[in-house]
Design a protein that fits this description.
This protein is an all-alpha fold. It has helices at about 1-30, 40-50, 55-85, 90-95, 100-110. The chain is about 70% helix and about 0% strand.
Amino acid sequence: MALALQIAVVTVFLVLGVVWGAVALGSQLDGVNEGQTADPLEVFFGVLRGKVVWPASATWIVAVLGGAVLALGILVAVAAARSRGRRSPVSSTFSRPRQHRRAAWSAATPRHHRHQPP
């Protein structure tokens, strides 16, 4: 439950930040929204209410920032999956005590290929 709440809070801040950044930069590029506020919440709700103009270049900015956030999320997910220490069946075989390795090895090897493992 706590993880879901953290994800929700981070998502809200990311959306607010991306919209605010896109409107601020897009307004400068397109020359609209002169004298707009620096408050991200006011900009976000101003766009929703129609009081703040959504610049045309802001769409491209959102696409680029959204792609960057998505790529960062994928990298974090991959790093988290790798850090869990997933092990292959081979590594689990060699982490067993010596007598168990011999039993597992001899059961999986045809008789004519058997010799004592190290």
